[in-house]
Amino acid sequence: AQSSVTVFGIVDATIAYGKGTDGASSKTQLTNSGYNSSRLGFRGTEDLGGGLAASFWLEGSLGNDDGTAGQRIPVGNQNGLQAPNDGAGLVFNRRSTVSLSGNWGEVRLGRDYTPTFWNLTIFDPFGTNGVGTTLTLVAPAGGLGVAANALVPVGTRGVIVRASNDIGYFLPANLGGIYGQINYWMGENVQNNAANEKDGSGWGGRIGYGAGPFNVAAAYAQTKYDATPVNGAAGGPSGDFTTWNIGGQWDFGMAKLMGHYSAEKRDASVTSAEAKGKGWLIGALVPVGAGEIRASYSTYKIELVGGAEPEAKQFALGYVHNLSKRTALYTTIARAKNEGGAAFALNGSTAVVNNTSTGFDLGIRHSF
Amino acid sequence: AQSSVTVFGIVDATIAYGKGTDGASSKTQLTNSGYNSSRLGFRGTEDLGGGLAASFWLEGSLGNDDGTAGQRIPVGNQNGLQAPNDGAGLVFNRRSTVSLSGNWGEVRLGRDYTPTFWNLTIFDPFGTNGVGTTLTLVAPAGGLGVAANALVPVGTRGVIVRASNDIGYFLPANLGGIYGQINYWMGENVQNNAANEKDGSGWGGRIGYGAGPFNVAAAYAQTKYDATPVNGAAGGPSGDFTTWNIGGQWDFGMAKLMGHYSAEKRDASVTSAEAKGKGWLIGALVPVGAGEIRASYSTYKIELVGGAEPEAKQFALGYVHNLSKRTALYTTIARAKNEGGAAFALNGSTAVVNNTSTGFDLGIRHSF
Amino acid sequence: AQSSVTVFGIVDATIAYGKGTDGASSKTQLTNSGYNSSRLGFRGTEDLGGGLAASFWLEGSLGNDDGTAGQRIPVGNQNGLQAPNDGAGLVFNRRSTVSLSGNWGEVRLGRDYTPTFWNLTIFDPFGTNGVGTTLTLVAPAGGLGVAANALVPVGTRGVIVRASNDIGYFLPANLGGIYGQINYWMGENVQNNAANEKDGSGWGGRIGYGAGPFNVAAAYAQTKYDATPVNGAAGGPSGDFTTWNIGGQWDFGMAKLMGHYSAEKRDASVTSAEAKGKGWLIGALVPVGAGEIRASYSTYKIELVGGAEPEAKQFALGYVHNLSKRTALYTTIARAKNEGGAAFALNGSTAVVNNTSTGFDLGIRHSF
Question: ipTM greater than 0.90, yes or no?
Fold first, then answer.
């Protein structure tokens, strides 16, 4: 019979340097995933005949610098309910799905990416990896260096990128360039009229159009959290989280230009006031022989009740040299500037409020 | 050389709904293993010549709805000594063995199923998976919804289905239909005349006969626990656990009828009185084209000192539609009725004592 | 395309018996890794042309007796910063690297063996596995049965065998028998002039010469720990750790003789005084038909401030019978004698100070 499982992965190791304001502190690490996220996975597809197919995808993260594996997974997407610590062991936190697909599209069940994540990563020259990662991804969860300003409940960071207990429907590939998906993820709470009945439940969708050199897409998602964090013993902000974004790119051949805009809102709750955030990125990929130059400018501003507006701006420049299709050497330098009370810092350094941070990556990516 | 390792597994996703008494509470989840247990494994066999073979089997559970992996494993089978939380990461909790086999049978070392588990799962039309799982499996460990009535120490739930540190001997396949096994599992305590010397040690055996449409087997097992739970900081009942069962089936072609009877006993200990339990199942599998109808009635009664006899009765009906040998769609509905102080509830719902619970599964099973 | 990933491993199960002094206590276990360390791994190499190659190696330990997987990994090699408990789930704690290699040698990034480990394991007839493991490996970390005498911080036991966040360079294979490596491992602390800036950082090297029946090598390594264990909430000794060793072997055909000498030093710190240790091994491997006899004598003495000198001496004798290249049966018996306050005990038994311990292994090793 045909082989029914493919073992695949990426091992990406990075020497990462970060420096906080005025050289008061710095950090050098051997870390991972500076170009592509390190991973180990198992996947396969079975042709069921008549255009129908069943497939599975199990993919976990790797901390290949120290041998650890998975990251914490929010249990049922809920506020504060988490699996054990990072580094616990291989879990299929990146994607864990089973699908049935046909010419009508695909139904996918399990843990998968949120629809809103795609515009941030596809339309970022750095693909949301390494020191050049767009601020529109890292700012909402990190609060630009001030945890209290985070726009998602601390215990649920995964819901920005992925959701568990998800039912997704994807449009088929034959719609003349139109693509799209809709997802519903479950909080899995007991339904007994308690305040946290919907905690961790959410939904989202994405619609796009790609043809020739052109590609554009928009996405929306929201996740419910109980106003009082019943499950959130760990504390952290509560309140429903809403996000939408739009992104696009044009491939001019000598360069691929891209950009995106993203806006987030955290509703008021018993423990924290309403907060909003918005940011954007503009960037380019420029092929150079066997390599590629990457550049981006991204910015994010959080709007707090009372008028404070912490904001960061970041410029990143990088180069990837492909030794083969599977193996590449890369380097990136980034510089972030904080204003209005932000203290965003790069590569594990710590930043003083309203000052700057510089980061540098040098690494190797090998896929299999 | 021949390939020495096979990567195999099952990804089974289920939309599971459960409702407690009179609709006061319900729960809907995307969960896993509604038809077959989700798993990822590695196995292989080496022909050593002369009829001798060496083989290994490493198989772990998957929580593919949220990307988590293994379940808690009792350390050395002992009361209260456990590995970290569920969902920690891939562990080979389902089976982790190395074997040497020949025409004299097989010696198997590691973590494996107890001999008594087989009659419960083979002679259950639902194979001890999903909402239709026989009460004879889930009642002894769960106490029919009242933890204090559980017949096995809470921290050792694995010993009902599997035991670690196990040495097993299996009869060869060429005995004219007779099959059997004997197992000894070690508690691995220091032997120094302390009260818990034998905590977690046990043994069991199974003998059966299968020929043509007929198959019948009986099994027995017991595990020692110290009367005072020295290792059981987590509390829970203590006392030796004994179980035996008998099961059989007849394949009439148009239907396969099956049934089993199971009896358990927990000895008195410092923290709890003696308790007994017994239950049975009758069921059928009916092939229908590419599919199969499954039906069962199971019941379990716990006999507590003082005369209380919590009891549950469950009816389950399901249908499996095979899209291929590897992929199936399935659905099951079950209804459980509690009496005498039982509060057993289906699919994560909560039940009021002496009332009913309804559960429903709809899912897809894909194996590789 | 060529296959890009190899799944490999070893499942080694051992019935291990240990007895402390005068029979007061004993322990029998089904354990693992009595001959070779149980493991599961994924590795591959890509030919990049021009003599250049990229490769990866992900290898985790297996507790195949109970289905658990990885062992604790010190986070960033630092004192007291650890990943969750043993048995948490599959982590690539044995080796987790990505490499670029050419005729100039190999650069390897990730978690890898320290250079000093190799002389202890290669020049030990028991390969640092099972009850016969050389005292030069187990004594420095275990303090010969008295934890306070351990020569490495308790929370960092891994640094003796492996280091995380490691950058290694290996000489190429074409230097006429000369081989060698140099490694630098990072503590990854914030550099802000705090006392623990260098905590967990270290380096080491190894140089050797092998030709025909002859092989000899020397190695050195040191790891910095802050004098005050800032990260060491778990307590345990602190202070920089230094080790060097030399080893060699001569293959006479009818027997392979080998030996090594190892010396360690723990610097004084706020919580503990300086301590030194030294030990040596002499051993032999004698081929006998399809099998091999193994024998060794090893000893280790810890020199504490104040003059106390706990010391243990161990004799081990074993036999391995190869059923094939991949599968072997083996047995080992060892006896250890304690002096000067040592209480080293074999196979999980407990020993009385200055007395003896006996251990016995019987097992099967199957590789794939």
Answer: yes
